[in-house]
Amino acid sequence: MPTSFEKPFLIAGLIFLIAFPYIAEAAGNAYFTSTVARILIFAIAAISLDLILGYGGMVSFGHAAYLGIGAYVVAILSFHGYDGSALFGLPGTEYAPIVWPLGVALSAVVALGLGALCLRTSGVYFIMITLAFAQMLFFFFVSLQRYGGDDGLFMFAGRSTMPFIDLDNDTTFYYVCLAFLAGFFILCRAIVASRFGRVLRGIKQNERRMVMLGYPVYRYKLAAFVIAGAGAGLAGVLLANHTKFVSPDILHWTKSGDILIMVILGGIGTLTGPILGSAAFLLLEDYLPVIFGALSMDLLKDHWRIVFGPMLILIVLFARRGLYGMLFRRETDDG
Amino acid sequence: MAEPLLSIDGLAKSFGALRATDDLSLEVETGEIHALIGPNGAGKTTLVSQLSGELTPDAGRILFDGRDITAMPAHERPHIGLVRSFQITSIFPEFSTLENVALAAQSRTGHSFHFFAPVARDRTLNDIARKALADVGLGDQVDRPAHALSHGQQRRLELAMALVLEPRLLLLDEPMAGMGPDESAFVVDVLSKLRGSVTMLLIEHDMDAVFALADRITVLVYGRPIATGTPADIRENPAVREAYLGDEEVA
Amino acid sequence: MLLFVEQLLNGLQLGIFLFLVAAGLTLIFGIMGLINLAHGSLFMIGAYVAATVTGWTGSFTIGLLSALPAAAIAGVIIEFVVMRRLYDRDHLDQVLATFGLILFINEAVTMIWGRTPLFLNVPDALKGTIEIIPGVPYPIYRVAIIAAGILVALILWLIITRTRAGMLIRAGSTNREMVAALGVDIALLYTALFAAGAVFAGFAGAMAGPLVSVQVGMGEQILILAFVVIVIGGIGSVRGALVGSLLVGIVDTLGRAFVPDILKLFLAPAEADGIGGGLSSMMVYLLMALVLVIRPSGLFPTAAAAR
Asked: Is residue A125 scored above 80 in pLDDT?
């Protein structure tokens, strides 16, 4: 059970995030806003994974695939909009009200197709198959020579366009990301507390019993899988806009691992945890090398992963409750 | 005579060389409490699992209310009134007692593709669940997490979850397993109050409970029924005494 | 036709690499219930050690022979330090911890050997080509790999079907508790099995050295393909791993060789190359999808798959 600290923490966190661009500017480090925007984007992806992993018990090791699809929809449509060529007979566009829903929808459709196959299995099969299908999509995008193949695709036209809102302004874009994160977070909180969410949590605890209570569990798992895919697609849409560049690296299998780590690091099955996990992971990734550099440990500065890997193993072995558990739960509450 | 509620015809299921269910035919009349007894390994649980749809029979037919349900998916069976309970307690340990039963009630009260309204404040579900919990004597345990309940309490929770599904035929797989005498007597009382309104197929090793509850008894040995009759018939049946009752201490 | 035979042999040879990696992986899962993402790292370690020692000594034989104990030692250390603690954990923990292990091993390899890929020459004795069937010249080295792979598969088959250790492995892959009940030193069996799996993977890596560039990340590429193999063959089944490996190897190789050409029969060449490139690299995954639709627990399902 979450203690009463969680809500004040979330409100304080939101206020902090709203004020952050001003703080960063006042501190003379405006580029921090961009770093945090990236954290917000990955938080959306991590929350979407937590929905199926933490509440539905589905260990998907291919979540970056949906991130990639969302991102590529934005970049490819922008590419055609920029050079005026047609895609399936239609012109490209950078207009967000068209492109963004399309990116989310295509992610959801692919999640529906792949989920329908993956969910025929469970356990370790499910892990291997989600990983394999994500790899399939990775190779698919690598082979798209027209869109840069291995090297990726720059969005020369800049970020998507939106009426009244100038996304090319980094601060504005930051607030758009924050709004989407807040919206998606609230949506997922509602979902896990709904009838559907209780069914999902029931499936995680005791799938067999759910069948014997008359639940067609496959359909519920698939629905959750599609929602999660759409969420990751949204994160992908924002990610492409953030960097104005996409490459198959976005859906490399290690990215799926990274998102999984964010969820675990933050606290599985908590929704709040993945936000913390995304922040902790990306900050570690950015600042571990800096820290080692400051300590003049030059070897570790270049090879910080040699510390990060074992850290991960230790977290798995000894600190499964994640940051959320450390902040909001007492030892005795762990059931 | 009216058509039986459940009619099993020539059912067979093997695991490798082991015939767990061997050309089994059996009828359960509407409204009766039909006990299924037999030594360990007689294939009682295997039979229940085939009736509930978790195992697919190798041969034979299962008719429920005149309808062939042999190939019906497991998750559809509770919705036609065929509900099972588990020998090994099968509940949702992280949920509260109330949530466990509410989740069962939710299955019966329409579909669950509601994504927004908070289920914890769903009056309909909670009322059904509270009443069912009161019926099995857990009215004062509603907010406790299910994993914190005692074994006997968990067994009763399991029963409450089955009952809110409003079964027409309740498949009870050793509902009193591991209970003390007081709790057993309580459950016998709960079940006998349902006599007539819910048909039951009862597997139980507690012979006091069986003879107190059953209208008819079928004795299963090596996957095959060797006798069916009233409790008095069964008590007197020489084949039964030899095959089964002789081995156990029976009142 | 000639090209087809050549590609078929290339597919067979890829299948053999896959089998050497997948056999260990599937047994480790079947018996220990462990999913090990770091198995591909052993393949990589085998390749690096073989390339390095060959560079020092000038002898590929010595390089190959030193890759085997190196992989075994790496395997035993990994088992001893990390895996042991994971047998009783759920799959999520295993995936995360072994993912951490990959990060560590890849970074360690980068520290030792740098980021530049190593290249290993085909040993002189095995240079040149041989006519497999008249008019089809084929590199001797690849023939040697196929022969060595078949030999190892045979040895593995003999061990599994004819020895006590093999009996334990067969029993263990279907019923772990039973092996424990036989009074076998489980810890020792697990370590030995892990080392054996490591040797097979390391052997494959060492032999792959002259054919590919030896670099960080090579292990994960083959690992993911080995997963596809296991899903197709059925978890815990060595026979499934063999059939799955050959299927995947051949489908992948033939797909890359012929799909663009076949598409050219229907599409404009530029388009066919574009789509064909994507489609051919997706072929094995589509094969996996097909198997999943028809037989969700693989071609040779075992009891281990139920877990």
From this structure: yes
Is pLDDT of C273 > 80? Answer: no
Strand-strand pairing, B33-37 and B216-221 = parallel
Q: Answer for the pair C81, C192: CB distance below 8 angstroms, yes or no.
A: no
Distance in angstroms (rounded) separating the CA atoms of residues A148 and C57: 42
Which residues in chain A are closer than 8 Å to C227, comparing Cβ atoms? 128-129, 131-132
Residue A295, number of CB atoms within 10 A of its CB: 10
Count of the separate structural domains present in chain C: 1
* A195, A218, A219, best to mutate vs chain B, most B CBs in 10 Å: A195
Residue of B47, B6, B33 lying closest to B188 (CA atoms): B33
Task: Give dist(CA A224, CA A51) in Å, integer.
Answer: 7
- Rounded to an integer, what distance in angstroms lies between the CA atom of residue C18 and that of residue C227? 10
**For chain B, counts of helices (H) and of strands (E):** 8, 10
- Find the domain containing C194 and state its range: 2-306
Among the partner-chain residues B112, B120, B122, the one whose CB lies closest to the CB of A196 is B112
Q: How far apart are CA B122 and CA B199, in angstroms?
A: 30
Which residues on neighbouring strands pair with residue B225, listed in sequence order? B220
| Neighboring chain C residues of A146 at a CB cutoff of 8 Å | 274
The CA distance from B213 to B231, in Å, is: 9
B185-189 contacts at long range (C-beta below 8 A, 24 or more positions apart): B186/B137, B186/B156, B187/B136, B187/B155, B187/B156, B187/B159, B188/B212, B188/B213
Rounded to a whole number of angstroms, the distance from the CA of A181 to the nearest CA of chain C is 25
First to last CA, chain A: 9
* Contact criterion met (CB < 8 Å) for A214 and B165: yes
CATH number at residue C281: 1.10.3470
Residues paired with residue B96 on neighbouring β-strands, in sequence order? B145
pLDDT digits (tens, 9 = 90+) for A189-236: 999 999 999 999 999 999 999 999 999 999 999 999 999 999 999 999
Do the Cβ atoms of A213 and B78 come within 8 Å? yes
Q: How does pLDDT run across B14-38, given as a tens digit for each residue? A: 887 788 888 889 999 999 999 998 8
pTM of the predicted structure, to 2 decimals = 0.91
Nearest to C97 among A144, A303, A313 (CB): A313
- Greatest C-alpha distance within chain C: 66
Torsional class of A164: left (φ above 0), alpha (ψ -120 to 50), beta (otherwise): left
Domains of chain A from N-terminus onward: 6-328 (1.10.3470)
C11, C253 Cβ separation under 8 angstroms: yes
- Summarize pLDDT for B167-216 with one digit per residue, the tens: 999 999 988 888 888 888 888 999 998 888 899 999 988 888 888 899 99
Could A133 and C285 be called an inter-chain contact, meaning their C-beta atoms sit closer than 8 Å?
Answer: yes
Contact A223 B113 (CB under 8 A): yes
C-beta atoms of A213 and B103 within 8 A: yes
Measure the CA–CA gap between B191 and C127, rounded to whole angstroms: 83
Do chains C and B meet with 3 or more Cβ pairs nearer than 8 Å? Answer: no
- Tokens representing B246? 């002789």
3-state secondary structure A248-265: HHHHCHHHHHHHHHHHHH
Mean of pLDDT over chain C: 84
Q: Let me know the angle formed at the C-alpha of B85 by B80 and B89, rounded to the nearest 5 degrees.
A: 150
- Tokens 């929350």 locate to A47
Q: Is C180 on the interface with A (CB under 8 A)?
A: no
Touching check for C307 and chain A: CB below 8 Å? yes
Helices assigned H by DSSP within chain A: 6-26, 31-53, 64-83, 96-118, 123-142, 170-193, 195-205, 207-212, 217-243, 253-266, 272-294, 298-302, 305-318, 322-328
Quick check: A206 and B114 CB within 8 A?
Answer: no
Query: In chain A, what's the furthest Cα-to-Cα distance?
Result: 62
Q: What is the DSSP string of A4-41?
A: TTHHHHHHHHHHHHHHHHHHHHHTT-THHHHHHHHHHH
